Amino acid sequence: KSGSVIVPAIMHGTFNAVVGITPLLVIPQNDLLIGGPGLAGLIVLLLTDLFLFLYDRFISRENIFSKVLE
């Protein structure tokens, strides 16, 4: 909406920092299950995307994602 890349850049950096620190703080397990690129990270990303889509579709006054899909 704002046309600025500052907020997405901050979110991207925050996500990368959290994903990088997670393996250091968790007891080593299967690499496919933990961390950002693992199953847990993919589930969180999918739930976040679903929440954003549903919020945009049914709650938000100005739809952003839905305009692109129609």
Explained architecture:
The model has no long low-confidence stretch (mean pLDDT 80). The chain has one domain. Helix content is 66%, strand content 0%. The protein contains three helices and no strands. The longest helix is centred in the last third of the chain and has 21 residues, at 39-59. It has 70 residues and is an all-alpha fold.
Nutshell version of this structure?
This protein has 70 residues and is mainly α. The chain is 66% helix and 0% strand. The chain is elongated, with a radius of gyration of 16 Å.
Write the layout of secondary structure elements.
Elements: H1 6-25, H2 39-59, H3 65-69
Q: What does the average pLDDT come to?
A: 80
* Backbone shape: elongated
Strand content: under 5%
Radius of gyration, CA atoms, in whole angstroms: 16 Å
Which sequence of SSEs, written as H and E, runs from N to C?
Answer: HHH
Q: Tally the helices: what do you get?
A: 3
What's the structural domain tally?
Answer: 1
The count of β-strands is 0
| Sheet/helix structural class | mainly alpha
Low-confidence blocks of residues: none
| Ends apart, CA distance between termini | 18 Å
